From TrEMBL:
Keyword match Secreted: yes
Any single GO BP term: lipid catabolic process
Location (main, coarse): secreted
Recorded catalytic activity of this chain's protein: a 1-O-alkyl-2-acetyl-sn-glycero-3-phosphocholine + H2O = a 1-O-alkyl-sn-glycero-3-phosphocholine + acetate + H(+)
Name of the protein: Platelet-activating factor acetylhydrolase
Organism in which the protein naturally occurs: Lepidothrix coronata (blue-crowned manakin)
Any Pfam family the entry gives: PAF-AH_p_II
Length: 428
C-alpha cells in the first residue's frame, strides 16, 4: 500500500489518515465556512518566565541559502506588534495546492479564517542578553512551513531556548521562497526594490514515482539544511557579520555570545521527525533529538545500524501511528535506555501544528485537526515531556525535571510506548 501524506505530516493510507488528506473535494460545502465564531481562536502564549520575540532570517540570493524563523527570549516591550502567523498569500496558495483545492477557493477561505491571526511573539523585539541560551533547531512536517509550529517554538523560547525553525526548500513545504535580484530593466524605478521573491511550491509525486526514493532524497537535504541553520546561528553568536536579505529591523549583533554551544538539540514533527533522526546521524553537535509523531518512511536503512548514538525521544499521537512505523521506531530504539517512546492519549497527527488552535469545531472535524483531548492539554504534555528530556540530556539547571514522569509515559493522558498492537497475528 502506497503511503499517502496528509497535510503537515504523513500517513500510511486513506483508512488511517491522522491529519488532513489530499484529495479533499475541491469545493467544500460553503456553509462550513460561514460561522463567524470560527475566527476567534488563538495560539497559546509561552508559559515560561521570558517574553518571546521572533524574526526571520534569509541568507544569500539563491535557493542554497538558509531561511528560518528565530524565536528567542526578548526584552519586555509593550510597543512591539505580534508577528503575522502566515505572512504571505502564496502560503495560502501552497496549502490549497497541497490539499487539492482550487487556489481561488483555498486562498479566500484561509484569508478569511486565519488572515488576521498573529502568533504570540513580538516581531523583531529586542533580544534579551545576559546569559547563554541552549539552541534548538526545529524541522517542519510535509506541507508545512516555518511559522506554523509557533505554539511549540514560543513555549521553548519562553523557557529559555533560542529556537531556529527552518523552512525547507526540498519541495516538501507547501510553499517557500528565496530572494533574487531583479534585472536592471525591472528595477530602474527608484521606488521598486531590486529584490524579488522566487516561490517554490510543494512537489507532488509523479505518476509511477516511488515515494520512498523521493522522501529519502528530501530528508537528506532537510538534514543538511538543519546543520546549515546550526552553523549560521553559531556564526552569528561568535560575532561574525551575516547579511539578512530580508532587511528586518532586528539587531543581529545582539546575539553575540548568546548561544551555549555545548547545549544544542534538534526537534521536528512527522517528516521533520525523520529529519531529526537523519540530522542526529550526521551531526554530533546535536546532543539529543525529539521526534513528534515521526514518519519513518524517509529514514534510510543505514540509520538503523547504530548510526544514531544520541538520546532520542519519540512523542506520538494516538491516532496517526501504525504497526510498520512503530516497528521501525522500536528497531531504532533497540535496547538504548536513552531512547524513549510515549503516546499522548486522544491526540491526532495535527495536535502538534498550530492549526489545531485556530480552527473551530466544524472545520476541525472536517480536516481532522483536533482529537478527543483538549488541544492545549495535548501540547502541554508534549512540551513538558520535551523540556524534561532536554534538561536531562543537555544538563540544564532548570526545574523541568518535575515532568520527568512524562518521559516514561506516566501521567494523565499519556502512556509508555505505543497504543498500536505489533504482536504477530495468531495462526488460524
Amino acid at each position: 500500500m502506497r503511503l499517502l501524506p496528509p497535510a503537515l505530516g504523513a500517513s500510511p493510507g486513506p483508512a488511517r489518515l491522522g491529519g488532513v488528506t489530499p484529495g479533499l473535494p475541491v469545493k467544500a460545502p460553503m456553509e462550513m465556512w460561514t460561522n463567524s465564531t470560527e475566527r476567534f481562536y488563538r495560539i497559546p502564549e509561552g508559559k515560561g518566565p521570558h517574553s518571546v520575540g521572533c524574526t526571520d532570517l534569509m541568507t544569500e540570493n539563491a535557493v542554497e541559502g538558509s531561511f528560518l524563523r528565530l524565536y528567542y527570549p526578548a526584552r519586555d516591550a509593550t510597543d512591539t506588534e505580534e508577528a503575522r502567523w502566515i505572512p504571505d498569500r502564496e502560503y495560502y496558495q501552497g496549502l490549497s495546492d497541497f490539499l487539492n483545492m482550487y487556489r481561488i477557493v483555498g486562498e479566500r477561505l484561509f484569508h478569511y479564517y486565519v488572515g488576521s491571526v498573529t502568533c504570540p511573539a513580538k516581531s523583531n523585539a529586542a533580544f534579551k542578553p545576559g546569559e547563554k541560551y541552549p539552541l534548538l533547531i526545529f524541522s517542519h512536517g510535509l506541507g508545512a512551513f516555518r511559522t506554523i509550529y509557533s505554539a511549540i517554538c514560543i513555549e521553548m523560547a519562553s523557557q529559555g531556548f533560542i529556537v531556529a525553525a527552518v523552512e525547507h526548500r526540498d519541495e516538501s513545504a507547501s510553499a517557500t521562497y528565496y530572494c533574487k535580484r531583479r534585472s536592471v530593466s525591472e528595477s530602474q524605478e527608484e521606488s521598486t526594490s531590486n529584490m524579488e521573491k522566487e516561490w517554490i511550491y510543494y512537489r507532488k509525486l509523479k505518476t509511477g514515482e516511488e515515494e520512498r526514493c523521493l522522501r529519502h532524497k528530501q530528508v537528506q537535504q532537510r538534514a543538511q539544511e538543519c546543520i546549515k541553520a546550526l552553523n549560521l546561528i553559531l556564526k552569528i553568536s561568535s560575532g561574525e557579520e551575516v547579511t539578512n536579505v530580508l532587511h528586518s529591523d532586528f539587531d543581529w549583533n545582539s546575539l553575540k555570545d548568546s548561544v551555549d554551544t555545548s547545549r544544542i538539540a534538534v526537534m521536528g514533527h512527522s517528516f521533520g521527525g525523520a529529519t531529526v533522526i537523519e540530522s542526529l546521524s550526521k551531526e554530533i553537535r546535536f546532543r539529543c533529538g525529539i521526534a513528534l509523531d515521526v514518519w519513518m518512511l524517509p529514514v534510510g536503512d543505514d540509520i538503523y545500524q547504530n548510526s544514531v548514538q544520541q538520546p532520542l525521544l519519540f512523542i506520538n499521537s494516538e491516532k496517526f501511528q501504525w504497526a510498520d512505523n512503530i516497528l521501525k521506531i522500536k528497531k531504532l530504539i533497540s535496547n538504548d535506555a536513552n531512547k524513549k517512546m510515549i503516546t499522548i492519549k486522544g491526540s491526532v497527527h495535527q495536535s502538534f501544528p498550530d492549526f489545531t488552535f485556530v480552527s473551530g469545531g466544524i472545520i476541525a472535524r472536517f480536516f481532522k485537526l483536533k482529537g478527543e483531548i483538549d488541544p492545549n492539554e495535548a501540547i502541554d504534555i508534549s512540551n513538558h515531556a520535551s523540556l524534561a528530556f532536554l534538561q536531562k540530556h543537555l544538563s540544564l539547571k532548570k526545574d523541568f525535571d518535575k515532568w520527568d514522569s512524562l518521559v516514561d509515559g506516566i501521567g494523565p493522558n499519556v502512556i509508555p510506548g505505543s497504543n498500536i498492537d505489533i504482536s504477530p497475528a495468531e495462526p488460524e
